[in-house]
Every structure is written in structure tokens, then in C-alpha cells.
Queue: 3 jobs
Job 1
Amino acid sequence: MRIGARDDVLAKPWTELFEEAARLGFDGVELDLKVETYRDSEVWSERGRRDLVERSRRTGVAPLAGVAPLAGVEIASVCMASVAGLMTKPETHEQGIEALADLRRYCDELGAGVAPLAGVILFPMIKQAEQSEEEAFGLWRDGFQAAFEKSDGARAKVGMESVGRVGRSADQALAMIEAVGSPAFGVYYDVGNAAYQSFDGIAEMKQLGGHIVQIHVKEIGAEMGEGVLDFAAIFSTIRDIGYDGYLILETEAGDDPAANALRNLEFVRGLL
């Protein structure tokens, strides 16, 4: 398994993010997109994607003679954040589909995830307040199917994340996976969110198994290892289900982001 961090955990702009991640010892980073500015981000620009790849490569280790260079800090995943909400609004449904399809292709250009890992797109599952479950389900299902069809051939996986105070269960996630019917579609599991939403994270991870495409690790309302979560049991379960992808820190940056990130990185390493 590899360990990464969200960009807001390291509290650095993307121009400095890869060097900071490398300095602290992370394997990868997760980039976060905002709905108001996603089209203006480097991810949505050909030149910007080249610059992101170059920053990633600059953090690689110089090769020995006759040995291939080691990869730098990877772009492990890209979070659609509020961009995902476009899909559940009928008036922006098509825009949400296009955004997801484009992002799958862009992740391939970014080299997000070096083989055997595929890049992952985090898709937060938040429906509009006034929507019924049935309406939201239909918009998601149709939107995911259309986005996969438009980006046929792209490698990036799409992982649903249960976010917010009212969570979505493993049963709901599996129903969506069956309805969408794509092998590139799964769950981005967040162990902190699961506890916050009163789900049994260990039981859910066992139920989801190979459908988990990436994992967020954090404790809500406490430092990792000092709250309610049994991380030893959580990490034992992660190993038991055969997960071997990225563990992405989504911890608080605090007053000293570097020190906090390093503390949490060392905590996770101690459990692997």
C-alpha cells in the first residue's frame, strides 16, 4: 500500500505541493477541484497537466546507472468535490456528465496512478435537499453510465464517497454499482465518515471488498489514534479484503500543517 495526502492537508498550492509531499515522505497527493473554478484549474488545461506531471517527475529519485528512474510523488487521485453536485441538478446534469468524462481522460494524461494502480476520481455522493432518493438515484445512474460511455478507453476509476451528516450505506453503494455496470466504478471509502455517520466501517469494508477503489483515513473530532476509531482493527480489515491501493490522509492541517501531516503519516506507517 502507498500513502498519500490531500492538497489541503499539506496546505500548499499545487506549485509547491509535490515538493512538500516528497520532503515529508508521501507517495502521492490528491488534488481537489472546486465547482466555481474547475475549468480554470491546471487539470483542465493541456499546459497545466504537463506542468503537474513535470512537478511530479521532479520529485523522483535519480536513477542508478542502467536502472530506470523511480517515480516521483504521484497524482494518486482527483476529487471532484462540489463539481460532483452538477450531476444531480437537472439543469446542469449534462455539464456534470461532461466534467466526469473529461476528468477520466485527463487523469490518464496526468499519469494518475502508476501501473498496476489506476488513477481514481473521488465523486462525493450528495443529493439536492429537495430531491427524493429515487430522483437522485436515477440522475446518478444515468449520469455515470453516460460519462463512462463518453470516456470509453480511459483508465481512471470513479469512486463514490459517502459524505455529509446523512451517509449512504454499503447496500446503497452496491445497488448503484450494479445499476451502473462498469468495472471502473466503485467506492471511495472513508473510515472517518463511516464512524461519523454511525456505520460499522469494518463490516462495510468487508461487504464492499474489491469494490473499494481508494480509502480516506482520518478521525473526525480528534487526532488519529486518540478518538473512537480502532485503527488496528481497521487496518487489519483493509489487509484482509486484499486492498493494496492508496491510503489518503484527510486530516486537519492545523497551525503546523507539515508537523501534523508527518505525525499522521508516521501513525499510518506504524500500522502497515
Note: The longest helix spans residues 93-110.
Job 2
Amino acid sequence: MREAATRRALWQERVMLVLLTVCALVSVATTLAIVVALTVEAVGFFRVVPIWRFLTEREWTPLFAVKKFGILPLVCGTMLTAGIAMLLAVPLALLIATYLAEYASRQMRQRLKPIVELLAGIPSVLYGYFALLFVTPLLQKFIPSLPTFNALSPGIVLGFMVLPTIASLSEDAIYAVPQSIREASLALGATKLQTTLHAVLPAASSGITAACLLGFARAIGETMLVAIAAGMMPNLTLNPLEPVETMTAYIVQVALGDVPHGSLEYRTIFTVGLTLFVLTLVFNLTGLLLRERFLRTLRQM
């Protein structure tokens, strides 16, 4: 009887191992399929448009009569809106994370953290219309020359979209700092604020940096918010008061248009998508490497 139960347990364990392996391979295969699909179409694009022209030209007009294929205006628009978002999100997220990890009681932390993370569950299209119909008119009261479509309004709202990601990961990093570091600082006569600023936050700096990079990767990959509120004008500008077009917004624009399948204009979708994939991958990998470094540092403490 005992041997039958042991064999049954071993059989169940093998089945679960196979299922878990299949699930892991499905995620890997999906990523590889995305890379292959993007790369195949991008290779066809670069056979016509030299890659140096794609990376150095300052105009992006593949849908116009005079076609220009410089990705710089789209990259600039993407980085501008994401940069504005980070300028707003990082200070607020660090303040929230520091309060939750260092000053809030356990009951308050359990109540406030889900509320902060709730912002991540709001559909991005609602954020887009909120930026277009509320934030932009509000800003126009202070900046009358501000056009309806601009980079400032979606950048501000995008900051609130990525705030939960940065705040949650930063709070975990700060909370994971060993208590002995706090006790040693307090024993030397430091105040609670001095301990937080000069002992805890430096110890959690790798984890906080990783959280910021992951939040930035989330910001540059946002689609509907910038497509609705930022406009679809590929301007090479760093002025947040002007309309811009991001890489994701261009993909939406062409995907909804009447571009013939297999044409050069159609392949620009995949080329821009591959560029966005590479940028996001770089920031995500950098963030994960910093997070691993932070965890290794904690294990050594």
C-alpha cells in the first residue's frame, strides 16, 4: 500500500514537472517567435533603406510622397514623454516607498500599498482621455499657447502610470535592508531621518535604480496614452510644449491605416517595433542585473 502511494506521488511529481517545463518553454518560444517575426520583416526593410540612414536621418515621413526614414524623431518623442514621466514619478515613488518601508505601521502599510498598486490596474486608454480632456485644458489655463496635443500632458499622466511600479519595487528594496544597518546607525546617535537618508537608502540604491529602470522601460512601451494625447507629429524636438509622436503611437497609426501588406511602409511597423523591443530589452536587463546585484549584496550582509 505504501509502495503504491509512493509510486503515485512520484508519477504526479513527474507530470507536474513536465507541465511546468512546458509552461516555461511556451513563454520562451513566444518571445523567440516575436523576435523572429520582427526580424524577418525588418531585414526586408533594411534591404531597401540602409541602416545608417534609418539611424541618422532627422525626418520620419514614410507615409508621405517624399519618404524619409529617420527613426530619431520617434525615439526623441518616446524619450521626451518617458523622461517627463520619470521626473514626476521617481521623487513621488521614492517618498511613498520610504514612508511605507520606514515610517508607516504594519497596518497602514498593508492598507496603503494596495491602493498605490491600484493605479497600475487602470486601463491606459482612460489615462489617455484623462490627459487629453482634463490635464491639457488645465495646463492651458497656465500656458495659453499650449496646443491640444503636446508631450507635457501625457508625460505627466504617464508618470502616475509608472509610479506604482517604481514605488512597489523600491519599497521592497528598502524594506529588505537588514535591520542591523538601522540599529547600527541609531546606536551611533543618528536620528531616524539621518538613518534613512544616509544608511538605508544607500544600502538599497541598487534595488531602487533597478526599479527606476524597469519603470522607464514601462514608460517607453506605453501605447494608448501617448497615441491619444501626444499627437502624431514626428517632431525632432525636446520642447515638451510641442506635439510629438512616439514609436508606439506610430505603430498604432499605421496598423489602423490602409497601408498595403508587404509594402515598405508596412514593414516600418516591424522595424519600429524591433527598435522598441531592443530599447525595452536593454532597460529591463539592466534593471534585472542591478536587482540581482542588490540581492547578492543583501545576502552578504
Note: The mean pLDDT is 86.
Job 3
Amino acid sequence: MYFFRPLGMVLARAARALRLSPTQVTLAGAVVGVAGGALLYEPGLGVLAFGLLILHGILDSSDGQLARMTGRVTELGRLLDGVGGYVTHAAIYLAVIARDGSPTIVLWAVAAGLANILHAQMYDYHRTSYARIVIQGRAVTGMTAAPPGRFAASIIMAYKDLQARLAGAHPAVERAIDTRSQAGLVSDEDRDRYRRCFYWPVRGWNLFGDNTRFYAIGVLVWLQRPEWFFAFVLIPMNAAFALVWLSQLRADRRFLLPGVIN
């Protein structure tokens, strides 16, 4: 809100002036992120690696702002943005594994990687739903986009299906809102009710964005213990995830209760 978004807007305006597309900014961010992750292999370059990861976070903010600024928001763009985050984390994981060199670190990395995917999916799903319903006032039936190719469409559908399976009761909330929508627009009552029910859970999901993990890497580089990154993901991040997920489930059930004003 106070760092990545303002700097992302500066880069988004610069990209618009240079006539770059949001996809080009996404790809640039992925290249920077992979470079930053890979540099964690070399102990003497940890600070530079952290700086590049922060730059990746700024670019990750700027591509979405550029897409909204130029009216080029698409599901494919959202998918590519997620892929950029995943390849950045893959570079981080591989660099830390190679730097440590022990067989045990591979097991920690696999477990942390699965947790990382779970965290990222729910972060993306709940933030996107909140923005669509509360800020934009759009139901699922109101979403329009240029159809991508068949392969890209199948990947997008698989991505959404995975998120829905992980989201507990929240898809039922979206279906209920969608049923009451008119011409693809969410009613003011549902928008207000959704905001009051889910404002704080969504604030909790913000913890699971990439930037939290990048901050942790900065601290661990300073401590000269980047191999502790996997333990950070598996222990405190997983504990926080369980608390936020249960808070979200309670809010979902409260929203779905008939006749309850939240």
C-alpha cells in the first residue's frame, strides 16, 4: 500500500509512455525475480539478490496497474502474473538447495514448496474475489474477456478449479451473490455485506503475498542463514495460514446464514 503500489504506479506510467504491454512488464519482472533468486546461491551477493527481489515485487505491482490503466485486464494476464511469482520462487528454492547441498534440505524444500503454492493460491483467490465484488461490483456472470487459445483456456480453468477446491465454503458465497446479481452487477446490499464480512479475512490473506517471503529472505540474508527460509514457510507461515483459513470459513458461514445481517 505504501511502498510497492506507489513505486509500481511510477513504473506503470513509465511503461505506458514507452508503449510496453502489461505482459512485457510481467516478463521483465519474472526475469528480474529469477536473477534475484539465483544470486542467493552466492553468499557475497545476498544483498543484491534481496534488492532484485524487491524490484521484482515493484514490477509485479506495476503490471497489474498498467493493465487497469490501459484497459487490458485479462484472465491470461492474471495467470502469467502468477507464473512469474512461481518461477521466481523456483529460482530461490533451487539456489538455497544448491548452496546448502545436503539431502535433508531437499525434503524441506519440497514441503515448503507445496505450502508456498497453497498460500499463493488462496492469496490470489480471495484478493481477486474481494476486488471484483466490493470494488468493481461485478458478479461472475458480468465478467467478459477476449477468449484465449484453447490451451491457455484449459490452464486457466484448471487454475480456477484448484483455487475453488482449496477455498472451502467461499465458492458457495460467490454462487449466492451471482444468483442475486442483475445483468452481471452485484447489488449494493451484497457489496456492503461482503465488505463487512470479509474485510478482515482479506487483510489476513495479504500476509501470504510474495513480499512477506521476500522480507523474510532479507532478514535471513542479514543473518547469513538463507537455508532457514524453508522453516519460515513451514512453521510460522503455515500456522498463520491455518488461522486465516479458519477465520475465512467462519466468515463464509456467517454470510451464508439466511436472514443474518453481518
Note: The CA atoms of residues 138 and 185 lie 5 Å apart.
